[in-house]
């Protein structure tokens, strides 16, 4: 391969037609930069020499086409060059050093950001895709141009999807609809979004796409005259009021119609019975004047007006939306915006390069995109799993938003169905972590309350309040979900360290020593040998069952230089560890015997799970005792809080209403029923298995007493015995 650093003026006499076409498209760039773009093609062509696409074309045609898509957006030379070279680091011998030497560090950074991770080893294809996507989002956070190249790459791949086999087409199309089209929407790039959605729809559901497309064509043929009349009437009225405006008819895409048919349960006829128009004017003030003008022409439909100029969407989109009752009895949807707003609506973050905007930063699509990306970067820092991260991102790529006000008058955009708890975390993680309730329009409501656009929301906090695992079920934003999970993981770690400390102390106590008596140098040497950074890690490992406490105690004592006879002290000499049940991060309760406070119990160290608590009379304990080093002597503390699962086997006379009678007796004993099932049943009798929540063994005994008093029960006992 010729040296990449030969930067002489490129010879353009032998350029293929598709490169000449690109050269024309980038004519908005200064001549020296156009030459660098051509030079990038030549370097890319040499690097990809011998490689072909599935269609049989030379591979270089793909990156050149991607560059062409970006040139239509008017992007800078570095982005165009990076697009031409975006697959070189992954698929060719070209090195990053050569790339940055020839085209600069920025181009190398962009190419590196776009490079996929297919060559890395992952446990599954899904994990590889998730990790690749995660890397792309982090690269986006550093430079937005990375995602523009990635979206253009995906768009060209979708345009040329026909060469792929059917399973690949479906997989790529689904990924496009679930991830890439929503990202384009989130970045305000509606033109990209619309084409990605329609290409994805066509590839994933070809028959549905064909049927809907044909019906759209037929419907448009029937209503062309009506659309022409409405367009003329709008233009005439605006001209008469001296408002310079461009009026264009809007046609719904097959994907948008299909999506609305599914989500809104509407028929094709209902969705097509709407006329859509866009009015483009010269200033924001003219938008409001044009609104008054069209409202005087046709009557507006009540509650169908939205002002996205005063309150822009989360992706920077601005426009006035109104619905009018037209001359043919059908609604007319009108969008009114300036040329600049139209550019931002079509190109989103890319409008910055193509359209010299003088909007304030609050309305800038780029500022909002960067804000979103920085929140994603924070989220990924606290999310260990790539798959969990991608799920959080999918939640965040919402198409519908609610706009809410803080007490200071700031506006927050959250996804539809967001709760007061989502709002609390959107304000700040600390506010979310300490939230106890909310005031919505000055009325006190629970944190799980769903919010609606226009509401004023105030979060009430308390220093002692902490996140609850149940919160995960009532939040919809990725930020809230990540913050709650992070807190719970931290809590589990704290529980594990505390519990591990108690277990190691008991083990060392049985050997006649304590953790404080182990010299720091001995402890440091032990941690280094065990490849652990801190004592907390060792304690956590013990609590989670990954290390056996009395073996660790023995090794520490031996390392201190004690005699082996001292080390061999039997573990049964250890004092029992008391549990309150609040150590849920470290403890779990055996489903085989459902131990309750008041039961005699034993703990078993299960690797990765921590201590699994069993009743001493549990049938499985015989087997567990065969590994005495993993058995932990534990007992219930005097002060135990919370509810515990228990199972009751109840034999009843089979007659109408018996189940309700038994359930009422259980409820009267202040016990909650989780589940009930028939185990056996015949004409005369039935056996029911109830899963309940009780406080302790005494509470369960009270439940059984009440059940036996009903007169419909022939037997009631704890299960298993």
From TrEMBL:
Occurrences of domain ACT (ranges):
647-721
Annotated metabolic or biological route of this protein: Purine metabolism; ppGpp biosynthesis; ppGpp from GDP: step 1/1
Domain spans labelled HD: 59-158
Which chemical reaction does it catalyze?
A: guanosine 3',5'-bis(diphosphate) + H2O = GDP + diphosphate + H(+)
What GO terms are given for molecular function?
GTP diphosphokinase activity; guanosine-3',5'-bis(diphosphate) 3'-diphosphatase activity; kinase activity
The similarity annotation says: Belongs to the relA/spoT family.
Name the chain's protein: guanosine-3',5'-bis(diphosphate) 3'-diphosphatase
């Amino acid at each position: 391969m010729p040296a990449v650093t030969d930067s002489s003026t490129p010879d353009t006499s032998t350029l293929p037609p598709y490169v000449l076409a690109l050269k024309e498209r980038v004519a908005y760039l200064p001549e020296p930069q156009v030459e660098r773009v051509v030079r990038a093609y030549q370097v890319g062509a040499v690097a990809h020499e011998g490689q072909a696409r599935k269609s049989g074309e030379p591979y270089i045609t793909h990156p050149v086409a991607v560059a062409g898509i970006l040139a239509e957006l008017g992007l800078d030379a570095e982005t165009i060059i990076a697009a031409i070279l975006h697959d070189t680091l992954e698929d060719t011998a070209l090195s990053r050093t050569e790339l940055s030497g020839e085209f600069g560090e920025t181009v190398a950074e962009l190419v590196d950001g776009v490079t996929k991770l297919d060559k890395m080893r992952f446990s599954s294809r899904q994990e590889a895709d998730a990790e690749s996507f995660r890397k792309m989002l982090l690269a986006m956070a550093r430079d937005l141009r990375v995602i523009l190249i990635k979206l253009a790459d995906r768009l060209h791949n979708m345009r040329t999807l026909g060469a792929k086999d059917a399973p690949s087409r479906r997989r790529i199309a689904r990924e496009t609809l679930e991830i890439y089209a929503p990202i384009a929407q989130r970045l305000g790039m509606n033109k990209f979004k619309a084409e990605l959605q329609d290409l994805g729809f066509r590839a994933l559901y070809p028959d549905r796409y064909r049927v809907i497309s044909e019906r759209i064509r037929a419907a448009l043929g029937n209503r062309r005259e009506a659309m022409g009349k409405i367009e003329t009437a709008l233009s005439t009225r605006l001209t008469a009021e001296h408002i310079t405006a461009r009026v264009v008819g809007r046609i719904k895409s097959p994907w948008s119609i299909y999506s609305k048919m599914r989500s809104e349960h509407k028929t094709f006829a209902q969705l097509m019975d709407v006329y859509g128009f866009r009015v483009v004017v010269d200033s924001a003030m003219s938008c409001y004047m044009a609104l008054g003008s069209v409202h005087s022409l046709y009557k507006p439909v009540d509650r169908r007006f939205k002002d996205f100029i005063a309150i822009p969407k989360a992706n920077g989109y601005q426009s006035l939306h109104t619905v009018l009752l037209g001359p043919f009895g059908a609604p007319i949807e009108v969008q009114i915006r300036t040329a600049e707003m139209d550019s931002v609506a079509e190109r989103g973050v890319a409008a910055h390069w193509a359209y010299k905007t003088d909007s304030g930063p609050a309305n800038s699509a780029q500022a909002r995109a960067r804000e979103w990306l920085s929140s994603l970067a924070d989220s990924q820092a606290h999310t260990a799993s790539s798959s969990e991260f991608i799920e959080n991102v999918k939640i965040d790529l919402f198409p519908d938003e609610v706009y809410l006000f803080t007490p200071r008058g700031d506006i927050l955009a959250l996804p539809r169905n967001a709760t007061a708890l989502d709002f609390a975390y959107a304000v700040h993680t600390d506010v979310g972590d300490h939230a106890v309730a909310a005031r919505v329009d000055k009325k006190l409501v629970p944190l799980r309350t769903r919010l609606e656009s226009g509401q004023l929301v105030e979060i009430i906090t308390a220093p002692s309040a902490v996140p609850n695992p149940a919160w995960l079920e009532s939040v919809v934003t990725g930020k809230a979900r990540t913050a709650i999970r992070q807190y719970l993981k931290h809590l589990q770690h704290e529980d594990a360290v505390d519990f591990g400390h108690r277990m190691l102390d008991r083990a060392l106590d049985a050997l006649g020593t304590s953790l404080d008596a182990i010299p720091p140098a001995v402890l440091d040497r032990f941690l280094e040998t065990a490849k652990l950074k801190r004592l907390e890690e060792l304690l956590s490992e013990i609590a989670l069952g990954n290390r056996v406490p009395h073996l660790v105690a023995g090794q520490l004592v031996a390392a201190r230089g004690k005699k082996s006879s001292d080390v061999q002290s039997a573990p049964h000499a250890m004092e029992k560890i008391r549990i309150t049940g609040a150590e849920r991060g470290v403890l779990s309760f055996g489903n085989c015997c459902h131990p309750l406070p008041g039961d005699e119990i034993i703990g078993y160290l299960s690797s990765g799970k921590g201590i699994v608590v069993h009743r001493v009379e549990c049938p499985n304990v015989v087997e567990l005792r065969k590994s005495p080093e993993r058995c932990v002597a534990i007992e219930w503390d005097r002060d135990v809080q919370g509810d515990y699962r228990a199972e009751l086997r109840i034999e009843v006379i089979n007659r109408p209403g018996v189940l309700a009678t038994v359930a009422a007796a259980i409820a009267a004993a202040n016990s909650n029923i989780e589940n009930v099932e028939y185990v056996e049943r015949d004409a005369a009798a039935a056996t029911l298995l109830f899963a309940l929540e009780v406080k302790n063994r005494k509470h369960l005994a009270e439940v059984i007493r009440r059940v036996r008093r009903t007169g419909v029960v022939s037997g009631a006992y704890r299960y298993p015995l």
